[in-house]
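debug: dumping io for the single-chain case to check the tokenizer round-trip. Nothing else runs in this session.
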Amino acid sequence: MANGGAMVGVTFANNVQGCNYSGIVFLVAHNTIGQTVYISTATVFLPPSQNVTVYPFIFGLPPGTTLNSTIFMTTFGGSPLSLSTTFVFTIV
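debug: decoded output
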């Protein structure tokens, strides 16, 4: 069986004028019994009053794997810059 991959696109908005934000986007994926099976990261720079889409990538898991995932953004120092969003997807 070949290993599959998935790319998840998520858009972050900077609604603050005159303020740049940069940080790390985390995608944390759990299998159907709650075990963390993958953590993907992507860096992002958000200019003032702009939207930026990032694409954390998951690879090496077999096709058909269903993942319960959470995605969020922090500063490089670990302070939160977004709310967490949870979703379910399956590796194709």
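debug: round-trip ok. The two ends are 12 Å apart (CA to CA).
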